Protein 1
Amino acid sequence: MPEAPSVVGGADNVLLEGISVRVRVPASSANLGPGFDCLGIALGVYDTLTVSTVASGIHIEATGEGADSIPRDERHLVVRAVRRGLEYGGASAAGLALRCVNAIPHSRGLGSSAAAAVSGFAAASGLLAAAGVREPFSDAELVQLAGEFEGHPDNAAASVLGGAVVTWADSPLDANPDGVVAVREAYLARGLVVHPGIRATVFVPETESSTSHTRGLLPDTVPRADAVFNLSRSALAVVALTTAPECLIDATVDRLHQPYRAPSMPQSAELVVALRERGYAAMVSGAGPSVLVLSTDAVTDEVDALAHGIGFATWPVEIAEGVEISW
Ligand SMILES: Nc1ncnc2c1ncn2[C@@H]1O[C@H](COP(=O)(O)OP(=O)(O)OP(=O)(O)O)[C@@H](O)[C@H]1O
Ligand SMILES: N[C@@H](CCO)C(=O)O
């Protein structure tokens, strides 16, 4: 089993002013139907971020998605991830200047918060490397750091590694005098080689949906038949994504989360049904309300018009490479 990195560190090195790093991070779609919390795919919609060390304070210039609503101080998700990443690498910065150009829509099931976390840790990695403090973080470290920080390693791993991913968590057990306890969740991931014929289309509504709200709609226990159903379909999803795209329709049916979330996003549920009736492997993207189609053919104009009629924009997107860091 691959080793998860250990999250330790301090803030021994204060980085000099004038170090800059640039990051480009893709959006992602989690679950891919049945693979609740364990499958994801990177999508070619990108946030770009430039982070520079400055003498003091937090300076944030943001354009694009979320620019009107995100905080411009230490509460900013990317700032928090950069700070945490520097701490993990044994350093700190007196001040940070961020330039964010955001194209990933927020709260639509396209992994914006995971991408923000990944971009922050990737920026910290670049700053540490540019300053000569340490080697850049490995992909495994980025998955662990961003997964732990943001809570959705299925999104985070896709944004780190690109392509499609399988993620899993492991809680190593530690014996202490009071008994055996789980010490810490380790987040691990492996990439899949996506069949070259598969393309992605996302249908994005104007309406937002909070992931924490729609997670709260899920039951704590499910019928065994539904669990078995999803086991077989998520195993099939790995086959369909890599070697058998003709199985995508069967491989993207889910009984663990979409049925429970459907009442909170009726248009998404309606669009998934309409697309599947037309032969497309359609599913809610992550926690919704966007809808993802994986197919070998482009969607038709009729589908585009149908989606538009119920408030969704049609975005054909590439299956993306993972995060890029330059300094
Ligand atoms: N680039 C960003 N910069 C700062 N904050 C961000 C950024 N992207 C997302 N966020 C924060 O994350 C929130 C969205 O998180 P949420 O988990 O609800 O949606 P999501 O990540 O877009 O969807 P999902 O996790 O279902 O794919 C935003 O409201 C904002 O507070
Ligand atoms: N697997 C998570 C993804 C959230 O982005 C969910 O469906 O809640």
Note: The pocket of adenosine-5'-triphosphate (ligand 1) is lined by residues 30, 47, 66, 70, 76-78, 100, 102, 106-114, 116, 152, 155, 210-211, 286-287 (CB under 6 Å).
Protein 2
Amino acid sequence: MTVSAHTSPPSTILDVRDLHCDRGGTEILKGVDLAIPAGGILAVLGANGAGKTTLINVLSTLIPFSSGSVSVAGHDLGSDPTGVRNSISLTGQFAAVDQELTGTENLVFFGRLAGLSRSAAHDRAAELLTEFDLGDAADKRLSDYSGGMRRRLDIAASLVVPPALLFLDEPSTGLDPESREALWTQILDLRNQGMSILLTTQYLEEADQLADRVAVLRDGRIIAVDTPQNLKSAYGRHRCSVSFPDHASAVTAGQILTERGYTSRKNDLVVGDTGVVELLVRSGFTELNPLLQAIDSAGLTITDVGMTPPSLDDVYFALARSGAQTPQGPAGGGDR
Ligand SMILES: Nc1ncnc2c1ncn2[C@@H]1O[C@H](COP(=O)(O)OP(=O)(O)OP(=O)(O)O)[C@@H](O)[C@H]1O
């Protein structure tokens, strides 16, 4: 079975506008706008308490929202929650599968719940176990699975009937690096088959690896949304390290850079004790080259130059520092 639930899916699978959600008298979501095009992966990135789980719970019809609008695969959440429910699957942070049943038994159970006949449920279970690299563990109880295997089975269980939109709430939380990478491969396979996915994560690397678009959620608001690459270009800076034969040369180079506006106060210049100057620049070698020329013209010898491109970590911390309150960049889809 391929993972395409609709013969002609709408081009936008998820459309969220000005979504608010109050819980226990507190406003948790404060006007969220999001969109996912068919076949896209959007990562919602946020620290503990940002509102990720609340967002997923609202979008998957588990808790009510206060105002705004949500459309999933053309179904309006307010007026047609059943249509939304039939279009989605949710894999939450806590596995919904039964530890005392085998892999096959769990998937057959979910298949039967979804209305498949006994033989169709068995066929689909076998297909999913193979797809998720669990064929050898089909007859083992889940209590004997590793954390990574359980998480894969949990995702497989959400795909017994392929949804138009899959929600993955912090899919790799608690997994070791090897299991995490295996899971990422599975998620990318799903995307390659045309599945649309919204995942929440606290891991910048996960968002970078998996998502076409990253939305940064802070305190119930989306403060930035764009491709990982654009976010890195807009908010990230290249880390340069320029080496000198001695500390005195590095100090002089530091003075030259300070005259050009780079300061330790802004955290974009560090003169180390070992003759190395660390510098943050926005536009790579275009910005660095004239600085190197100025240092060279002052008669200093440069022994080495290294540059590391910006990471999503840099973006995250830059956004956290900036106190950004409004969305940056288009809140919709598009390819990487
Ligand atoms: N039912 C509730 N009543 C009151 N406050 C709530 C309720 N549910 C969540 N909150 C609060 O809303 C905020 C967002 O919670 P949420 O679980 O959505 O965050 P999160 O980004 O998923 O965090 P984590 O990564 O820790 O799961 C938190 O401050 C939480 O304490």
Note: The domain at 237-309 is CATH 3.30.70.790 (Alpha-Beta Plaits).
Protein 3
Amino acid sequence: MTNLSPLTEVAPEAPRSRNRWRGLLPRWSPKLAVGLGLAGAIVLFGLIGPLVTGDPATIRDFGLTPPGGEHLLGTTVTGQDILAQLAHATRGSLQIGLLVGIMATVLSGVFGVVGAYAGGVVDEIFSLFSNVMLVIPGLPLVIVIAGFVPPDQRGTGTISLVLAITGWAAAARVLRAQTLSLRNRDYVAAARVSGEKTWRVICVEILPNLLPILASQFVFAVVLAILSEAGLSFLGLGAANSSTLGTMLYYAQNGFALQRDAWWWFVPPGLIIALFGGALALINFSIDEIINPDLRDRARRERDVVAVETDTAPGEQDAVLTVKNLNVVYQSDTPVHAVKDVSLTLRRGEILGLAGESGCGKTTLAYAINRLHRPPAEVTSGSVTFHDRDGEDVDVLALAPEELRAFRWVKLSMVFQGAMNALNPVTPIRAQLQDVLRTHRPGMPASDREKRCAEVLRLVGVDPARLGSFPHELSGGMRQRVMIAMALLLDPQVMIMDEPTTALDVLVQREILNEIRRLRDELSFAVVFITHDLPLLLELSDRIAVMRDGEVVEYADAEEMYLRPRHPYTRELLASFPGLNDDRGALIR
Ligand SMILES: Nc1ncnc2c1ncn2[C@@H]1O[C@H](COP(=O)(O)OP(=O)(O)OP(=O)(O)O)[C@@H](O)[C@H]1O
């Protein structure tokens, strides 16, 4: 099958290149539109309402008037206009929400980000303090603190402070974890080494990466503050001399609004709290999609799965893996469409070679097949189906996280590019191999684990006596064999090998390739073998797919490709290896 489909446009991404901050903004979606619309309307009401609705405290001599006429939302028992009260109360609640949001975000930033960046004793003290604050139950503490503050000092500022003090710790934990990961990134290390000041490294290198998390936490803190303040006011512990939605509910309860069927007194403030909470939750969900692009992938994948199910073109008879119209895009400032509409079928026991120059998308394709791709990489469409030995078809892109964990390495394993450096230098080989078995076969007795580890080492031609060795005591070739042994441990049906021999000298490379072919014959797993070295693939593979610029431009039997390359790019690739141009006649295998 030759796949020469035209480049799929990624139209909505175009503006990203113009504005690097665009990537940090939520994508426009119905959820976001509804959330922003509702929240915006409520904020406008809180801002403009008090200016046009008049004094909410004016007492009139006609109490509990139902909505209509002069008083659109009716009056309280003392004849105060509910609409005017609602406008002022909305403003009061928004003020508290905003104040608490800012204070809680600053506190979590200081204790989470600064602590984690400073490290050492500072981090330990900050982290201990955050943990203590986290385990103290929030609402009871708020009630106790608010209860101890005399009513005349219990203004909006005091209540906001109390709510912020009790509401920052969980966010600080998340920020700390994220900062610990960011501070070890190369660009942060480079900034430090180049002598940038600490505040600058935090503000310029770290904080921009935390913006979506901070925004999400801010929104959450605002919702929580409005709800908590309403709860406190309802208990009579809210801000004194101020009007909030909670105090409105408190007075409605004291005025027996429910018993008097005066629904217009308590329903509007309750409704505004519920709508504002719902609106911010919708906004927060859209921000979550920036932090975790997997969320937006999921919806799209579910759509794609339906499309694939209705399009059940007959696959190849003995297929173990079918990739259909797979598209992967790196959603970076300038989106890179790294895999374009790729369709491949891997037969049971087959070695499928994936060739192409550096940057053509081989690794991206391998990672996407395995669901190992990480943001900004995103599978925008297509399907990956694994056809299990027992006849079941597994839709790999739709697997839930737990199912994926059970699938990977058991059914489909991977030997990574530069894999020989992937071994942990301070742990003996035995422990590293046994870890895989402990994770995937928790019930396996220790003696069987030991036996299996020795067995796979033997399979790849490494003396089992080496089980106790540390990686640095092994040669590069041996380490590579250990990595292949690790991929074999659970007897997978498919093994993806991404340039597994690139760093090795030609002789060791040849030995390992022979080993792979022998193992495939013995254990009959299928292999996707990735390399830019087309001659090597011609020797090793049954079929070869040639990739260029993210597309599979030719897909054919190895011998056929060698003798009759059809695509000009394949011919160009073959011509670039001098040994293949001579008169050898047939492919040497
Ligand atoms: N994190 C990323 N963000 C944006 N673009 C990326 C990212 N990673 C890879 N790319 C781009 O995706 C394309 C495919 O990269 P990929 O690593 O899959 O190529 P490859 O064929 O495996 O190359 P190599 O043989 O050198 O490993 C390249 O154009 C690359 O620049």
Note: Residues 1-20, 293-315, 580-589 have pLDDT under 50 and may be disordered.
Protein 4
Amino acid sequence: MVSPVPSPSPDDLFALRERLDVVDRDLHRLLRERFAIAETIGMTKGPDEPIIRPDREVEVVANRLRLHEGAMPRDTLVHIWRVLIGGACAVQRPYTIHVSGTLEAARYLYGPVTIVRWPTASEALGALADGSGDVAVLSDAERWWDEPVSAHAFARFELTDGTRITLLGGSGVGTSNGPRALAVRNDRLHECDVADLSDEDDILGRFAPSPFTIPVAQ
Ligand SMILES: O=C(O)C(=O)C[C@]1(C(=O)O)C=C[C@@H](O)C=C1
């Protein structure tokens, strides 16, 4: 339960800021603990195992959304946890996000990690080919599925302007062999062959929307 803040007077400002400082200190301590655990989890993953576990990421965010209450907007909650997860991946193994025209979504999802911008979706996809576990964040507006895709798609997000975003990972990302797509349905991850994804209807039919939308400036 979130304890309510009583109606403030200007005189209360100092006291309220002191309360914030205490909360921030506790949050910081818990975040350091979360990152230490994530670092240890990374040590249990072998050098050839993928660091990024999309199904678990979906579960982590969905867990928080399910229990959410209070003044914090749900978009803020999701954004914070996406940044925590992006950072947790980075402390386990360095990786790069490749984007084409979707920088805003990539920053929202991953925060201050290394982002490389490519002129086209096919060039961003090409950058995944080395299988290092890098991730591409592509807008469906670019019809990236018109070309052969040798990567894993592991999440779809909808922007508030209606654009759909798909996350694709290099061959080290997924847990199966061959190009598989991963879709989120009912908070669980489902797989299908990326090679089978030939048109927009096909993609929309196979990927259920994720439990949140990414706000963009209108
Ligand atoms: O559960 C893991 O395997 C983790 O590495 C932790 C964590 C997280 O921050 O919750 C981070 C990266 C993975 O993609 C999934 C989840």
Note: Residues 38, 41, 52-53, 56-57, 60, 84-85, 88-89 surround prephenic acid (CB under 6 Å).
